[in-house]
Amino acid sequence: MGVAGCRWVSGVIAVAFGLGAGVLRDPAGVLRTALLMMSGDPRVRRLVSTAPLTRGVVERFVAGEDVAAAVRVAGGLRDAGLRVSLDLLGEDVTDRRLAEESAAAYGGLLRALADVGLTPAAEVSVKLSALGARVDAALARDLALRVCQAARDAGTCVTVDMEDHTTTDATLAVVADLRREFGETGAVVQACLRRTEADCRDLAAAGGRVRLCKGAYAEPASVAYTRRAEVSASYARCLAVVMAGRGYPMVATHDPVLIELAAGLAGALATGRLPVSAQAAGGWSAGQAPTAPQVEAPQVEVPSAGMSQAGTSQAEASSVATPPVELAVDGRFDRRAVEVPRGAASQGAVSQGAAGQGAASQGVARRPFEYQMLYGVRPGEQRRLAEAGETVRVYVPCGREWYGYLMRRLAERPANLLFFARALRSTS
């Protein structure tokens, strides 16, 4: 494998075993924690960043190092029937100059996208720490406003990425401020955090674009679910909340069970039918559908969302109510319990091996939403869903500061570690 490869893989193993007995109980979970811890270690960053890696290792998950490469990749995805959210890598800037440069880079990217006609199919995702949030919160807000204006001028919009749990309150507060002038601004919430179901209720009542993801940061058990099954169960509950709300859900997952659950909920909401496997939660029982809070909120124009697959407007579909769906018993997520309603209510629901049977191709009324997946992760499934008539957006990072992003991708699926190690070996 070579010196660099051996040192890096040995470091991962050492950190994992340093975490204690959990290695035997949940080896994948401990490996994930080790990788996330190493994502912030400057010594490991130097080792990996200076290793003679083949370009293919990084290019699997990152679309090049400059705007031209990002625009080229975005164009290819658009031509394949996919939508795009571009992220300029480079979070945690430490001075005002770098923050200003980051905002200017987003402005240049947005102009480049507009110049070649990629908006509104392409939007941008922005981390507030890239705009100086750790230096000056007011600076980050002002620069975020500047990026939002540039996005609107280009004919698209911004989604504000969520970072670790210490930033959640501040990030949601900035999103609320941005939406006063730029109502199309998207929020992001992470199902791994224990607080997120409550955050989803607030966002669902307010309306607007909401991306629900599992989360990719190392978080303490005091604020986060640490087992994969618990995170999946939390995701299912949060998904039902945002689907029942007044906004536009962006379902960011690669999990086939959750992909199918989203399609089933969207179909059930359009007809008033619910998954029969939904367990009692919040005082309601299976088969009952209490009315969701009818909160007056401004209707947000969602660039590139438009009409639902069946021609139902967002405003019409978002008025449909559903209760939160509980798919967990004592925190355990039972994949076998996920039963998506079939028949007229959701005959277009997505199922594995059912390519071409999406709601769009069947003309089935559904609550509008979109799937979101990461660049380089399950690209075949991205294309399959798009060909089935689903709206699919690919999250595309670009830039030279790829190390932290790459480590989080390895942590999400430790099997990717073998791919990375093989590349190290092939270049030594």
Automatic annotation (TrEMBL):
Q: What UniProt keywords are attached to this protein's entry?
A: Oxidoreductase
What is this protein called in UniProt?
Proline dehydrogenase
InterPro entries annotated for this entry?
FAD-linked_oxidoreductase-like, Proline_DH_dom, Proline_oxidase
Mind listing the GO biological process terms from this record? L-proline catabolic process
The UniProt entry, under Gene3D superfamilies, shows: 3.20.20.220, 6.10.250.3270
Which PANTHER family has this protein been placed in? Answer: PROLINE DEHYDROGENASE 1, MITOCHONDRIAL, PROLINE OXIDASE
Q: Where is the composition biased (Polar residues)?
A: 306-321
Proline dehydrogenase domain location: 75-268, 344-419
Organism annotation = Candidatus Protofrankia datiscae
Q: Name one GO molecular function term.
A: proline dehydrogenase activity
- Cite the residue spans of the region called Disordered: 283-321
